[in-house]
Amino acid sequence: MSQMKRGYKQTARAESAEETRERILRVGAEQFLTRSYEDVTLQTLAEAAQVSRQTLLNHFGSKEGLLEAVARRETSARDRVEPGDLEGGIEVLLENYEHVGDGNVRLLALESSLPVAKSLLEEGRANHRQWLERLCEEYLPRRDDERSRVLAALHAATDVYAWKLLRRDLGVSRVETARIFRTFVRAALFGAKKR
């Protein structure tokens, strides 16, 4: 076999493997975001992705491994917001919650009983705080104690539980939820400077 043919076959095989991985990720996102964790099985995932269970395991190692990959992929959109763009940050955050919020809330219910849920949620909280710090850096107080207090207020004000309370429990519209989040964020950032 010529070097050129071998290179083409290896490239085609790698592209096919990447397409398969992406298809499994899409199916995993759909199932984990719309069903309870217990109802998502390797078999239902494999069937929906049109792969064997072994192929799924080869790519992600386990159901938990796929959940981790889906969680990381779904939260990466926040990174496209420029520091200081509070309006854009709130919009991207709420867009993300509209897509994954219900799944996050279901995952929160499993935190004490499912190690992967605990790990993902701890990582998610740390990432959310870092994202808030990057987004709001120019507005944050310089003193460590004040900075920590404002970041904690921002975190509470923009947490998925705040979204759930407004959107799911109280039936507040998406537009009004954005207004409320903006009010929360401004109060946390600028209300603190008046003290």
UniProtKB/TrEMBL annotation:
Give me the positions annotated for DNA binding: 41-60
UniProtKB keywords: DNA-binding, Transcription, Transcription regulation
User: Has the keyword Transcription regulation been applied to this entry?
Assistant: yes
Segment Disordered: which positions? 1-20
Say which domain of life the source belongs to.
Bacteria
Transmembrane parts of this sequence: none
Report domain HTH tetR-type positions. Answer: 18-78
Q: Does the keyword Iron apply?
A: no
Matches recorded under InterPro entries: Homeodomain-like_sf, HTH-type_TetR-like_transc_reg, HTH_TetR
Protein name (database record): TetR/AcrR family transcriptional regulator
Species of the source: Pendulispora rubella
